[in-house]
Amino acid sequence: MEAASLRADGTEMSISIEVLASKLEQALPGRTRVQRSGGGLLGRGSKSVREVLVQLGSMSYRLQVRGDRVEGFRQRESGGIAIKRESLDPGSWVAELTSTLRAEAERSAEAQRALSLLLG
Question: Is 48 helix (H, G, I), strand (E, B) or coil?
Fold first, then answer.
C-alpha cells in the first residue's frame, strides 16, 4: 500500500490523503464518502479533503483532516448503533482498513477489485 501510505509532513500528507481518497472513491464507490472543502471564489480553486468515511460491513473507518492535524477512527456498529470507537494514527488507519478489506475480499468480488486497485 506504498502509494496510498500517509506521509508525515504537511504538503506530502495532503497529497497522500487526496490520492488515498480518490482511490477509495474509485475502488469502493458505494461504501466511500469523501467530504471536501475550499474551492475559493465560485468554487474555482482546488478543494481539499476534509474527511474520508469507508463502510465495510459492521466496521466504519473515518479519517478527519483539520488543518495540519489528521485523525483516524475505527468504529464497530451493530444495528446502526456504535458499539466501539477507537482512535488510530493515519498509518494505522490505512493498515487496519487494508486488513479489513483483505478479510472482506475473501467473501466479496467488489472488495477483491477494490483491494487490487488500492494495492496495484
Answer: strand
